[in-house]
Amino acid sequence: MSLPSKLHRFLLKAETLLLVTLLLSLVVIAVTQVVMRNLAGGGLLWADAYTRISVLWLAMLGAMLGSRRQSHLAIDAFVRFLPARWKNRMARINNGLTGLICFTAAWFSGDFLAQEYRYADLAFANIPNWWCEAIIPLAFFVIALRYSVAAFSPENQTNLDT
Amino acid sequence: MTLALVLLLMVMLLLGAPLFAVILAATMLGFYSTGIDFTVIAAELYRIANTPLLVALPLFTLAGYVLSECNTSERLLRLTRAWFGWMPFGLAVISLLTCAVFTAFTGASGVTIIALGALLLPVLVKEGYQAKFSLGLVTTSGSLGLLLPPSVPLILYGIIVQQLDIGEKFTLQQLFMAGLLPCLLMIVLLMLWALWANRHVKLDESEFTWGEAVASVKAIAWELPLPLFIMIGIFGGYLAVSEVAAATALYVLVIEGFVYKEIRLAGLAKTVSDAMQMLGGILLILGVSMAFTNYLIDAEVPMRLFEWVKLHVVDKFSFLLLLNLFLLVLGAILDIFSAVVIVVPLIVPIAVSYGIHPIHLGIIFLANMQIGYLTPPVGMNLFIASYRFNKSITELYQATLPFMLILLVAVFIITYIPWLSLWFLAP
Amino acid sequence: AVTLKIATLSPDGSYWMQKMRAGGEQIEKQTGGRVSLKFYPGGVMGDDATVLRKMRLHQLQGAAVTSGALNGVYPDIQLYNLVLLFRNAQEVEYVRQKMDAELMQGMEQHSMVALGFADVGFAYMMSTVPIQTLADMRSQKAWAPDDNKIAVSALQAFDISPIPLPLRDVLMGLQTGMINVVAGSPVGALALQWHSKIKYVTDLPMLYLFGVLAIDKPAFDEIAPADQHIVREIMAGVIKEIDQHSREDNEQAIAALKNQGIQFVKPTPEAAEELRQKIAATNSEFEKTADLSPEKTAKLHRYLEEFRNQAKP
Ligand code: NA
Ligand code: NA
Fold this sequence. Notes:
Largest sheet of chain A: 2 strands, antiparallel
Distance between the termini of chain A: 29 Å
Transmembrane segments (chain A): 49-66, 90-108, 128-149
Strand content of chain C: 15-25%
Number of helices of chain C: 11
Structural class of chain A: mainly alpha
Radius of gyration of chain A: 20 Å
Structural class of chain C: alpha/beta
Family (chain A): Belongs to the TRAP transporter small permease family.
Number of strands of chain C: 9
Strand content of chain A: under 5%
InterPro entries (chain A): DctQ, TRAP_DctQ
Distance between the termini of chain C: 56 Å
Number of strands of chain A: 2
Membrane topology (chain A): Multi-pass membrane protein
Order of helices and strands of chain A: HHHEEHH
Strand order of the largest sheet of chain A: 1-2
Shape of chain A: elongated
Organism (chain A): Methylomonas rivi
Oligomer: heterotrimer
Number of domains of chain A: 1
Largest interface: A-B, 60 and 65 residues
Shape of chain C: globular
Bound molecules: sodium ion
Order of helices and strands of chain C: EHEHEHEHEHEHEHEHHEHH
């Protein structure tokens, strides 16, 4: 296996691992909160912020995962009646446009992140807000990349009905 | 130029481009035309992290996915057959009631379809109900408890109206009372539809025997306490909703992993990634919809729509008719929380001047918004069901259409018979 | 023509918004349409933090927010927000008369034009059990808004366990006993329905709350100086009216709470003093960590002392 494809596989694994870890941490922290409140009185003061922000991260990571096979929701009311060749062509055009839109979103989210970095306020504990926001440009960039690659690959993997 | 781009977006939408991308592009177009910086899109998405109500969503999603990976629905089917098999249409009725209660608890955040719908759907189908009917039923039920306490949109309505300077004062308890009969009306109408739609269907009927009844409970003994546990958790005051969700997720992981041994560590990564793909798909659409809503608010679109409604009003009757129309349009494009905060302060003073009681108005408002969960383009129930049951949006439109029409009938009855919402007030 | 887009959490139709809209119309008339204000009420633009973020991103030019939200812009704005600092409305009035202008200048140096400060009222402790002394507080379960460092550290100083909960769960928390103490203004308690669950109010002003109408300075500077003067003048008048009305509102709310059978329990002077001593260390710690100007803090305490000496016969 070549180095780039090894790296790619490593990144895919890392993506999934991060997702699973985040979700389990959400479970553990919320349950700890309950136990602390009922047994010790009180609770983790940063837990609420942590759980809210991890929902954003889970959502964006989930959306990234969903773009691996371009399985984001779409309205198929009309496409389903097209002949296969046209269906494929349509899908590639859609993927290309989606890639373009997401690159634009990634660019401006990056600009947003830079401004937030300069403003430097804290989200919770000692975590700056821009760390928490970083997932937005990152996710848009990865989604853009995946849709663009799909637009240029000869056979299309868009799966509306599979 | 703008018109051409709008048309292009419509074509993209109809030709199967991802919904989130179309809404995102529409947002950019709107921002461009009003001179809002595109960086605001990210600021709007970040508001996902500012919405405490959403925390329960990934957790219930996980629990729901794990349960549906295991044989829980078979055990549930056995249980309902043993206990309610003798009762005609018992399962449809029970499904409607359970979903309504569950939705009220979870703030109509779509959790009902994920956690309950996915268990009920296979049970309904195996019991003999038509697939399309069953799909419509569980998708619709996902917002059925909106009028029951402690539904969050209902509370939000009460809080907003209380801060307005209008004559009629009411308490939150009265608002809760007001929602009971209208919600019951919806449930009854949907039940009647369930009977009618399945009148030719041969449902499995079984005799009640104590032996099977006890055995079926034994089989599901570990999962059966879950609903009770969720209710006690929320109402007993030990847990907030998000914590109930976390405890549920943990409990489900433990019993399915160690007691029933139906899920393994290797399979868990796949389940988690499936569950989170759905969460991501839904929340990304929600996030970009919030950005699009921001454009609508900045351009004062809801206000202008309402000015138009006001222009065409001559009496109370036509006001109510146009109000329903206006709210249906709004429900189609906005999520419920934005709709409540934007529109309630606009309409309450005018409605009151037409002699409509603010409690009645609140019920009309939320009943309309409940339909909004089923209408395109932003219909959260449709999106969630599409992911959860792996059905196309088109199929879901077809399946939910009769249910939506019934809810529409209910909304008209609720609108024109104020007694349903106000019976407990002294005349 | 310059349009200032201003967002606030206050709902449309409330007294705040009625007055602000009226002020906006007056400004438009007096400047001959060269300046217009556009309002986004009811939190439709998001919570205070989001609104300030949108000001930085130039979608909005102004916001009416609680003073605490501005701590990242101008730390000294929290000067009045020390726990148990003021003992009554007269003290607040005296200090604000002396210091408001200075704080507004400070805001302006931090690129925000403050058009006025409006009273929100005192936050009181409200509870299901009577609380009059430090001992009464021990091991009660109080709601702590998780983003409010002042409230959290104050509760900890009083040996109360702060229970972090989102605002929307507070009512349910009170009902089920997850928490039994909340803090807020009387008006807020009525609006959020807390009055249906609490039985006692500790009759001791805990914390002074106020709102700020702030405009982004670069946007404000686009207005011609003569028109700037008109905007400042009119909005200062509007905020003054709101300020006045809010006091009456809170007095009415207190009466309403009493009407509901809620008991106002007053700590004895000794008990109140014990609480003040207990919080002193936390307050001076806060003055340091929150980056308050030592010079202004000293001034504040001096004014308070001055007033208290005058008040004594
Ligand atoms: Na809709
Ligand atoms: Na909707």
